[in-house]
Inverse folding.
């Protein structure tokens, strides 16, 4: 695929828009070309940390909005975990009323600039889209996420973001543990009702995975910082460098510090390893470590004191977003070769389709139906290679998925000096270990009822700590639900 | 917050600081540590043991050796300055109970993390024998403080400039051979010293606790950068430790892992010495 410049894409859209008949028939709408996302040239972006996807121009946004059929049954809404009124906001974009469009989105979502960028749209809102169905490819569905991003960026770039108004003080105090998307949502929704809100974050900067995990080239940190400033402008207090379970126990917040309710949004931050030979050699990293050094600690900047491992040949193990982020970061940090090793086939990769495509364009080499057997060391104890086994797809299992099975004797060696393990995260045990009575599942996630309440009174939870490693929008949705329950509880306590 | 209340140079490269940190001071227990960072944007997060705490004053004491970039910058801070980020107390507290006869072995800067443990062991009613080692007399720290705690204090230096001219493992071996043999040994110092202490006590079956100082990033179990092999398992030092059974730790792997960033650290260290030299020449070297 040849790379088209933003100018070119925009110019084509302008021409197309000018040629559209009025009124537009559904058939004509289906004939409008799906708008490609302008992106930095792969050859250039391999060497920088700036955002890859550049965002639609106004012409492209309008044209893409014209592709929407305004289906009376609105199937897309059911695909969005927070139920944004998608046809309504897209209709407003087509009219050129961006203020109204963002208003529609904001009724249901607090983080449109983030979700528009990182939601796995092809499996959420865009999956049931009629346009995609009619054109027999989910890739041809209306680009709901890109349109959402367009209006969110329009709002921010025009300085129109307003912090929600805050009701008069109630004197009630709510503590929020963690500062990822679930917590950000709870903080805003609870603060709106006039309650005092304090967010406790273990790291030195708030934002959760949005900050330390998802790289700058996919989600600029300025966007996350903007969300945090909005919270501060509402009067939310943020205490960084504060580990609940260590600096202060959860029960102390309730019993000694006078918090009326708590929300736990501590995420899924415990990296899984493969438990194969050689995993503790120098040069083997969890994706969490690698990405934290690169993002939060700014490993890509010469001025950063936190070192990043100087890699030449990198193997990334896994096939999710985290694996793509690690692989693409390694390219940007100067690795000569980056290999991605995945046990199943590309069709099963959990990563967003766009990330897979971007990774390939940037030169990440994909090896599917492969799995490492052991990591090899040189005489100093540093990684010098990896023994890999080939797999093939076997019979479908009970879930209908064909299970990968190893091909005996198919071992071969790969020459690598760095291995990044990106096979998922479990939940961090710190809070459950230090909080008696907090019920957890056998996977260590917190058990909550359908309002988000845990087994402890006045203690709610949501996001990855409840769902296991999931998505930003699901975390936000859980936050919204718990905030509703907290607001209800506090209103009852006042009454 | 995090204001430096007191600073003292203990030896050539070792500094003691008392820092305002009321919450950490009231929660911390022996064996725990903090992570500090001098600059939000580009600073590194480094772990340091809480050597002492005063919950009444609301302060903690750290004792550190200026070995690289961050510890050098920290050494240049003065009373009244603040430390931008300080988080803790992290790690599992030391398991303290009445064991009987406890031998505490500290090497070099390891004497600093050993101090609160020796103190707590003594307070729990143990007979506490302390062995302290350093390259020479000049580098020996906390001698008076340790003398106050110890039922018996043995000092060793590599060059014999004070105490016995021996490695700490020599008196440790003698104690293991004596009757009654120690109920527990606690060894903290450079990894190689801890390794040999564990080898010394192994034949005598004296349970030996070591406190590991691996490289860390978050200190909350999120990154796995601090992992070590203990027995046949992988453990995270920041949440499962920092203390482990010395007879099970794979020290060779740990020592290798500590060198992961050596070339880069050496370059930074060299650069910060160079900057100091230039400042000296230009005549505005910051007060230390
Ligand atoms: C590399 C990577 C890429 C991803 N890409 C995508 C994507 O493209 N699209 C998508 O939808 N999702 C993606 N995800 C998943 C998504 O980021 C998470 O599902 C989401 O961030 C979960 O939000 P959360 O609020 O539950 O917690 P998190 O974002 O995990 O935040 C939890 C916060 O709590 C803090 N904390 C933990 N314990 C304590 C404690 N004891 N005291 C105080 N603070 C504490 C942590 O430091 C952290 O800041 C990705 C995840 C990763 C790691
Ligand atoms: C739980 C724990 C408690 C600690 N307590 C103390 C303490 O009380 N006093 C003290 O002086 N030091 C302590 N350390 C070691 C301290 O963290 C390191 O000296 C510090 O990180 C060095 O940072 P730097 O930027 O100055 O040097 P760097 O430039 O990062 O490193 C300089 C040299 O130190 C070695 N090094 C780097 N990181 C570490 C590390 N984490 N541990 C050991 N060596 C390292 C490097 O291999 C290099 O040779 C502790 C470490 C841990 C994990
Ligand atoms: S929030 Fe996510 S799922 Fe919902 S409409 Fe926006 S992009 Fe789609
Ligand atoms: S399903 Fe697609 S075409 Fe129909 S309203 Fe939703 S976005 Fe528009
Ligand atoms: S320092 Fe990150 S897991 Fe221990």
């Amino acid at each position: 695929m040849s790379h088209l410049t933003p100018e070119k894409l925009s110019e084509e859209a302008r021409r197309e828009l000018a040629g559209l008949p009025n009124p537009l028939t559904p058939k004509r709408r289906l004939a409008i070309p799906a708008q490609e996302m302008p992106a930095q040239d792969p050859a250039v972006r391999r060497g920088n940390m700036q955002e890859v996807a550049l965002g639609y121009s106004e012409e492209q946004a309008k044209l893409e909005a014209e592709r929407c059929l305004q289906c009376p049954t609105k199937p897309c809404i059911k695909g969005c975990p927070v139920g944004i009124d998608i046809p309504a906001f897209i209709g407003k974009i087509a009219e050129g009323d961006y203020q109204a469009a963002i208003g529609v989105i904001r009724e249901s979502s607090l983080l449109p600039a983030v979700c528009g960028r990182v939601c796995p749209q092809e499996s959420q809102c865009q999956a049931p889209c009629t346009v995609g169905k009619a054109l027999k490819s989910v890739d041809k569905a209306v680009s709901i996420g890109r349109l959402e991003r367009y209006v969110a960026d329009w709002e921010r770039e025009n300085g129109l973001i307003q912090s929600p108004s805050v009701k008069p003080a109630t004197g009630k105090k709510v503590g929020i543990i963690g500062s990822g998307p679930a917590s950000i949502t709870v903080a805003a929704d609870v603060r709106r009702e006039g309650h005092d809100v304090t967010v406790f974050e273990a790291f030195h900067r708030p934002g959760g995975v949005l900050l330390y995990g998802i790289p700058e080239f996919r989600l600029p940190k300025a966007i996350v910082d903007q969300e945090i400033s909005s919270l501060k402008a509402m009067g939310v207090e943020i205490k960084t460098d504060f580990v609940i379970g260590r600096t202060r126990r959860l029960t102390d917040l309730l019993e000694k510090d006078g918090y009326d309710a708590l929300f736990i949004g501590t995420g899924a931050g415990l990296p899984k390893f493969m438990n194969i030979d050689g995993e503790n050699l120098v040069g083997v990293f969890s994706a969490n470590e690698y990405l934290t050094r690169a993002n939060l600690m700014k490993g890509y900047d010469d001025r950063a004191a936190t070192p990043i491992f100087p890699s030449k040949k990198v193997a990334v193990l896994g096939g999710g977003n985290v694996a793509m982020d690690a692989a693409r970061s390694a390219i940007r940090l100067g690795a000569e070769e980056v290999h991605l090793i995945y046990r199943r086939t590309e069709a099963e990769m959990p990563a967003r389709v766009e990330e897979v495509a971007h990774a390939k364009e940037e030169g990440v080499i994909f090896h599917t139906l492969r799995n490492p057997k052991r990591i090899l060391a040189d005489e100093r104890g540093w990684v010098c290679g990896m023994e890999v086994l080939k797999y093939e797809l076997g019979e479908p299992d009970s879930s209908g998925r064909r299970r990968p099975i190893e091909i005996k004797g198919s071992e071969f060696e790969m020459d690598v000096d760095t291995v990044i393990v990106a096979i998922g995260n479990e939940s961090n045990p710190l809070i459950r270990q230090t909080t008696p009575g907090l019920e957890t599942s056998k996977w260590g996630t917190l058990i909550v009822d359908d309002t988000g309440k845990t087994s402890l009174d006045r203690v709610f939870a949501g996001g990855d700590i409840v769902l296991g490693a999931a998505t930003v929008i699901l975390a936000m949705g859980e936050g919204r639900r718990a905030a509703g329950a907290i607001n209800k509880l506090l209103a009852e306590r006042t009454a | 917050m995090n204001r430096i209340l007191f600073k003292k140079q203990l030896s050539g490269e070792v500094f003691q600081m008392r820092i305002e940190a009321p919450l950490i001071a009231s929660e911390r227990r022996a064996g725990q540590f903090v992570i500090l960072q001098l600059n939000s944007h580009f600073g590194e997060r480094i772990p340091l043991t809480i050597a002492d705490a005063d919950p009444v004053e609301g302060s903690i004491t750290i004792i550190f050796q200026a070995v690289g970039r961050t510890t050098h910058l920290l050494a240049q801070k003065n009373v009244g300055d603040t430390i931008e980020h300080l988080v803790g107390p992290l790690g599992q507290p030391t398991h303290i109970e009445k064991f009987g006869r406890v031998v505490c072995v500290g090497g070099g800067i390891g004497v600093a993390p050993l101090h609160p443990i020796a103190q707590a062991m003594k307070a729990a009613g143990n007979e506490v024998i302390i062995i302290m080692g350093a390259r020479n007399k000049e580098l020996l720290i906390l001698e008076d403080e340790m003398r106050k705690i110890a039922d018996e204090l043995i000092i060793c230096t590599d060059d014999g400039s004070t105490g016995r001219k021996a490695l700490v493992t020599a008196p440790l071996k003698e104690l293991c051979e004596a009757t009654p043999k120690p109920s527990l040994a606690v060894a903290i110092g450079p990894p190689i010293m801890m390794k040999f202490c564990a080898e010394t006590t192994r034949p005598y079956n004296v349970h030996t606790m070591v406190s590991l100082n691996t490289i860390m990033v978050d200190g909350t179990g999120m990154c796995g950068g601090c992992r070590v092999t203990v027995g046949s398992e992988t453990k995270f030092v920041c949440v499962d430790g920092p203390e482990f059974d010395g007879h099970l730790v794979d020290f060779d792997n740990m020592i290798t892992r500590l060198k992961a960033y050596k070339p880069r650290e050496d370059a930074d260290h060299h650069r910060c010495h160079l900057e100091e030299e230039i400042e000296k020449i230009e005549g505005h070297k910051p007060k230390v």
